[in-house]
Amino acid sequence: MKSGYYFWSGDIAAAEGAIAAGCRFYAGYPITPSSEIAERMALRLPQIGGKFIQMEDEIGSIAAIIGASWTGERAMTATSGPGISLMNENIGLAIMMEAPIVVVNAMRGDPSTGLPTLIGQGDLMQARYGSHGSYEIIVLYPNSIQETFDLMMDAFNMAEKYRVPVMYLIDALLAHMFERVYVPPEEEIERKIIRRKVPNKVPSRPFEPDDDLVPPMPLIGQGHKIHATGLTHDERGYPNLTPKAQEKLVRRLNEKIIKHEREIWKVEEYKTEDADKIIVSFGGESRAVRNAVNSARKNGKKVGMLRLITLWPFPHEFIKKYTADFYVAELNYGQMYHKVREYADGNNVKLIAKMGGEIHTPNEILKEIGGV
Amino acid sequence: MSDKKLKKKGNVKIDIERCKGCWYCVNYCPTKVLMVSDELNSKGYHPPKFIENPEENKVCIACHLCELYCPDFAIFVEELK
Amino acid sequence: MSLMEDLRYGVEDLLRTERLPHVWCPGCGIGITLNAFLRAVLRRKIDPNKLVVVSGIGCTGRAAGYVNVDSFHTTHGRAIPFAIGIKFARPELTVVVFSGDGDLFAIGGNHFVNAARRNHSILVIAVNNFTYGMTGGQHGPTTPTGAYTTTTPYGNPDRPFNIPHLAISLGAPYVARWTTYHVNQLQNSIYKALGMKGFRLIEVISQCPTVYGRRNSMRTPLSMMEYFEKNSIVKNDASFEEMELKYNEKIVVGEFRVAKDIPTYEERYDEVIRRAKNAD
Lengths: 372, 81, 280
Fold this sequence. Notes:
The complex is a heterotrimer of chains A (372), B (81) and C (280). Chain A has helices at 10-20, 35-44, 58-70, 81-97, 124-129, 145-162, 172-176, 186-192, 243-258, 261-264, 285-298, 317-320, 336-343, 362-368, and strands spanning 4-9, 23-28, 51-54, 74-79, 101-109, 115-119, 138-140, 165-171, 178-183, 227-229, 267-270, 277-281, 303-308, 310-312, 325-330, 349-353. By secondary structure, chain A is an alpha/beta fold. In chain A, the strands form three sheets. In chain A, strands 2, 3, 4, 5, 6, 7, 8 and 14 form an eight-stranded mixed β-sheet that branches. A five-stranded mixed β-sheet of chain A has the order 11-13-12-15-16, sandwiched between helices. In chain A, strand 7 (138-140), helix 6 and strand 8 (165-171) form a beta-alpha-beta unit. In chain A, helix 1 (10-20) packs across helix 2 (35-44) and helix 11 (285-298) crosses helix 14 (362-368). Chain A is globular and about 65 Å long. Chain A starts with a strand and ends with a helix. A two-stranded antiparallel ribbon of chain B has the order 1-4. A two-stranded antiparallel ribbon of chain B has the order 2-3. Chain C is built from ten helices and ten strands. In chain C, the strands form two sheets. An eight-stranded mixed β-sheet of chain C has the order 2-1-3-4-8-7-10-9, with helices on both faces. Chain C has a two-stranded antiparallel sheet with strand order 5-6. In chain C, helix 1 (3-13) crosses helix 2 (30-43) and helix 4 (101-107) packs across helix 5 (109-118). The interface between A and C is large, with 44 and 43 residues.
């Protein structure tokens, strides 16, 4: 895409951000409110020699992008909560095979079919814990159309760098809202791309990690005789169904993310330096929170917002560093609220919940934090 | 068995440790040069043994059928040069 | 060395021999099928570095773990879409799905029908042993009506898939069925399919003496093989009814469809790319 200003929805920005970040393979299944991502990819990928395929369901979609990832492609799928529910088994496969992929979840009202066209934030725990087993995953969540475009670069870079699926949350508000987006010049974008490590000898041991706990990733078709499995495996990739192999593998899969959590954490600290009340928020909801913070500040109240851009691994140090009353504004019946409580260290934590369909109004938030 | 003398063309080599004792090879060998061994491999299976008897026309004709039927990749037929 | 000796040693090179003996039970037909497949690959002179084998879950799903090429042991039922991702991204690769009947037609049935419909250029070798072996012999989508399994203790009330007919109805350009008794025909069939393009299906009727045969009066490997030997009929122009598999009755085998020059999904997408670039 030529450098310049565009008027895009979040769905279009997610697709264009992915293309800018080097994504050339997309497999997906239509679902509101993410469908326009697929439509944009169907239009744009073949123009640049990329591949778009509409699969028969979400399970097939994620399986296809894991396969494509092993050929070296930066591969993506997009869906909404119901689709993530179907994809979750293969999220686990991507974790176990250490296949970099990006999975977009445009969150809608929930549970079940819920509110297809309206915002929800009920999939935050699902994003972290949806697949079975003990694992770490990276979850990012922008709050503007510009950020939806820009943050895609981080999503792909983190997936490739740590060989892990990255869940990219947006929500129905962002997906369908249009804003101005600046696309930087191509050279500037290119410079930001981090490519995955590849082995320097053939055949390699596809699961033998470097010091950063991440193994270089061999690609299909180059003589590596890769074997990758969802079973517990040794460093050659062969099944090894013993407690010892399990301990070694599963510990590393978790620790390779925890070890790098400070590099992965992205938060926006908005007027928090002197705040005695901090509202934790993210995504579409944080736009109302920012407005509420600004109103409160006009009235001399020391209120700030801690906006989580990285939801998982949970940026706990940013909770621990403050002495303030915490409020967690989210469109669910309390999810990240529990995580904030875990690290609040004696500070008060209050949930400002709404079940979804719409974000809070700034006044509702102000009322919850004790009025202006 | 016909009166025509069969010409020996090969030898059957058996990787005893890969064998699981299904005995397809014993059953499908057209010249009956394989039979069930009394011995056991380390997993407790009776592998086949290769015993020819030219008097009874029991010689390996290198048809390789035993190789194709072996589910365990345990048989190699070496042809005579 | 003779051609046959070359093939035998070639098979060793295509196996991860350090992992043998494999997990399959005595007399299991999966090893016979894998052997036929590897020989066909050698005869086709396919560069092993450009061959990818994808399996799902189950006994046959373990096949990917024994082939010494890029190989993937995926989740239950998802071998086909995983393989599609590889083939679509790198059409120059030979991509083979080697998996079982429960994996491909029950949990993975939706992927099978849609992949065949779209005509992705992959070869699917479907080992049909009438049962879920790995989990202890439950009935599956191919268990014949009336058969005894651990979940059909009074005989199976289900009707099984007519797999070749299903594949033909979806337009798959190559459809064949053999049993593990037909070692030469099976190998030749795989050889032929490897030389074609599009969605190719070979159903291999295979024996599971351990958990299927024992409950259906075929207790030993040899008795199951004997059933295939005595009851198979080669009939390439078989009708729907003839292709149906009935409990302990005849098994019609053969090459049921051979259609060349049907455009594959990957070829049709090249046309999409051409149009998109021209429209740009």
